[in-house]
Every structure is written in C-alpha cells, then in structure tokens.
Amino acid sequence: MLRRITCSYSLASPSLFHRFFRQFPRSYSTPTTIAVSRRNIRRLPTPTTLRCICSHSSSEIISEHPPFIRVYKDGRIERLSGTETVPASLNPQNDVASKDVVYSPEHNLSVRLFLPHKSTKLAAGNKLPLLIYFHGGAWINESPFSPIYHNFLTEVVKSANCLAVSVQYRRAPEDPVPAAYEDTWSAIQWIYSHSDGSGPEDWINKYADFNRVFLAGDSAGGNISHHMAMRAGNEKLKPRIKGTVILHPAIWGKDPVDEHDVQDKDIRSGVAQVWEKIVNPNSVDGADDPWFNVVRSGSDFSEMGCEKVLVAVAGKDLFWRQGLAYAAKLKKSGWQGTVEVMEEEGEDHCFHLLSPNSENAPKFMKRFVDFVTG
Predict the structure, then answer these.
(1) What gap in Å lies between CA 97 and CA 116, rounded to an integer?
(2) Structure confidence at residue 346 as a pLDDT band (50, 70, 90)
(3) Per residue in 236-249, pLDDT tens?
(4) I need a surface site. Which of 8, 100, 123, 262 has the fewest CB within 10 A?
(5) What's the pLDDT tens digit per position in 120-173?
(6) What is the chain's percent helix, strand, coil content, to nearest 5?
(7) 165: closest CA among 230, 122, 103?
(8) Are 133 and 164 in contact (CB under 8 A)?
(9) Among the options 135, 194, 227, 349, which is catalytic?
(10) C-alpha–C-alpha distance, residues 27 and 147, integer Å
C-alpha cells in the first residue's frame, strides 16, 4: 500500500532554505533591465511521460522534497519553483535581441541566444566574444527561459557587447545526472559546428568569435562549467576555450574541506540527500560522487581546457569553502592557466541574482564583464 512519505530533512526551514538553492525572485529588477509583463510569463509544462493519463485521478503525494519537487501517486512531478518563463524577442529589449533555437531534436532542447542590437553595425570581419551559459537550480529547477536568467544575460550581453548562448538541459528527477552533462556537452558541440561559419544558426555564424569563447554558470551551472571545461581539455576541443567563469559552484562532499566549512551534520545530510534522492539516485558514492565532490575527486585538473578561470564565492554561501578549495586545487594542479578568485564575504549564494540592487552586485557584474572582455 502506498503511503505519503515526507523527507526527514527539510530544505524549507528558514535557516537552510535561505542559504541553499533559494528560490529566485520573479524578475531581475535593476534600472536598466527588461520590465517583464505578467502576461508574458508562462510556466514550463510537465513532461508528457509524467502527466496523469487518467485526468489526475489521484492527488495523493508519495514523496515531497521542498523547495524543489512534489511526487504524486499517479506519477506526476510538480516543481515547486523555477517554472515561470518569458518569451524571446527579436525586437531588441534593453538593446538586446533574443531567440530560441533547437539544438537537440532528440530531447527537444533549445538554446536561447542573446545579441546586442549594436552588433548589426559591426564592420565586416569584426566579431563578438561568445559566452556559453549554464543556468543554476540544483539540476532540478529553472531554465534559460526563466525571467531571472533571461534578464541577467540581457544585462551581461549589453554590458559586455558579446553574443550569449544560454543552454537548456534535461533536469532531475525525470532525467538524473549525468543527463545534464551529456546535454551541455552536446550543446557545446552544436555551437562549435559553427566555428567555420557554416553552422545552422546565422547569428553564431555571423557574430561569434571562436577565439574568444567563454563558459559560465552559477550554482549547479558553475559545477557544470567546470566539468565542461575539463571535457574540452580532455577531448582537445578546438579552438580552445578562452576562459571559464565558475559562480558560487555547487560542490559538496560527505566531509568538510576545512575547519571553516559547514560542520552541522543535519545541513550536510540535507544537502547530500538532495543529490542522492533527486539529482543522482543511481550514484554509488552519494555526496562523494565525482560529479558533485569535485574538490576531493581524483580528477586531474591539469587538463583544464581553457586559458583562464574566474571563481566567484560568497562568505555566507553554503558552498563558500568548497569554492575556495576548488580554486586552490586548480592553482596547485599544474594547469598552465591563470586563476582569479572573487570573494564577497558578506554575501550569500547567487546574491547577484537574488539581490541585484545590493551594494556589491554592480561590482560583481563589472568583474564578470571585464573577465569576458579582457
């Protein structure tokens, strides 16, 4: 007999919820960002395979994982956050145009492209830095079409005068890890099919400078950025990636990395269980899975496939010490590139998205933009 199961841990408690994968605000409200109309906000549909075939005949909940998902007896999965979307627009908004292009027909996955309006006036032969972005959301929530990511990348593209490609990937629990990593690598290969100017997407052919390619991502997307840069190095991706921006990366492990890392056993267990129960339930290593425990994995960082890396950490973030340990390991690995660390001691996880009007957000944006344009 099926019965309702509620997790013994709760990420909805204020002390943990507000410090770990907090739900993003519904708009990125800086004075220069897009004003997102409520009528333009949509919700991502539940995958067909998870919809109730019998008109939702059962509303019984069999498991609940706040603030991420709720699982029903009939197989439905309800996402509790990160489901709102905004459409792309070829009509420049805030001087940036955008459009969606399918890169994986097999999995019905798209990228959202962002192009600065002034790029149409580029002299022949002049091209733009290419930023490939991986969104956060604990491998479970959010998408390139979420208001916060659409607006954040609009601001980045306007400030950096670059072409950005925001990548959609399959998410847990419908598609557990490593699906997200397979998809993001597939997206990179699709993007690189344009490097000789003969790919299927005109914006990339016409405007992308493949000698100035940057990977970037926050939280789960920061973790993905690392793994993609590593794979690019191992597979000798050409042209070589110029730089990688790893923002507040979701990196964890069963044990703290140092005496300043999170010591509370309940918090450590709660974070681990998100990975073990939702993100990668097939992992035999749990929170020490090499996808998650990047710092203490046996991975050889010396093959990182880019020239420079910017690691951003925040002092109130659960992943603060893991991020610093990651940067330290990269510096000691024998890798021949340069490592920059941007640390904001008084800020929390992804504060630049969650509190874009905060005192440190403009400084954060400037450092990000300078890294991509420098």
Answers:
(1) 6
(2) very high
(3) 999 999 999 999 99
(4) 123
(5) 667 667 899 999 999 999 999 999 999 999 999 999 999 999 999 999 999 999
(6) 30, 20, 45
(7) 103
(8) yes
(9) 349
(10) 6
95 as an active site residue: the answer is: no
Is residue 66 reached through a cis peptide bond, with omega within 30 degrees of 0 on the bond before it?
no
Within 13 A of 113's CA, how many CA atoms are on the CB side? 21
Q: Quick check: 261 and 327 in contact, CB under 8 A?
A: no
Q: How many domains does the chain have?
A: 1
Q: Is the peptide bond before 129 cis (omega within 30 degrees of 0)?
A: no
Identified catalytic residue from 219, 225, 283, 299:
219
E-assigned strands of the chain? 5-6, 42-43, 61-65, 69-72, 77-79, 84-85, 96-104, 109-116, 128-134, 163-167, 208-218, 241-247, 306-314, 338-344
Could you tell me which residues are beta bridge partners of residue 98? Answer: 114
User: Is pLDDT at 210 greater than 70 in this prediction?
Assistant: yes
**Residue 286 CB coordination number (10 Å):** 17
Q: The dihedral of CA 321, 27, 275, 108: what is its sign?
A: negative
Mention every residue, 6+ apart, whose C-beta is less than 8 A from residue 232.
Answer: 188, 215, 240, 241, 305, 306
The mean pLDDT of 177-182, rounded to a whole number, is 99
Q: Assign residue 105 the CATH number of its domain.
A: 3.40.50.1820
- Contact in structure between 294 and 251 (CB atoms under 8 Å): yes
* Domain membership flag for residue 56: no
Q: What is the mean pLDDT of the chain?
A: 87
- Checking DSSP bridges between strand 306-314 and strand 241-247, what pairing results, if any? parallel
Asked, for residue 17, whether it belongs to a domain, the answer is: no
Question: Is residue 80, in this structure, part of any structural domain at all?
Answer: no
In which domain, by residue range, is 338 found?
A: 85-373
Signed CA dihedral, 279, 216, 40, 105: sign only: negative
CA distance 344 to 360: 8
- In tens, the pLDDT along 27-74 reads 333 333 333 433 454 555 444 344 433 444 568 998 888 889 998 999
Residue 324 lies in a domain: yes
Lowest mean pLDDT among 3-12, 323-332, 354-363: 3-12
| Catalytic residue of the set 261, 317, 348, 352 | 317
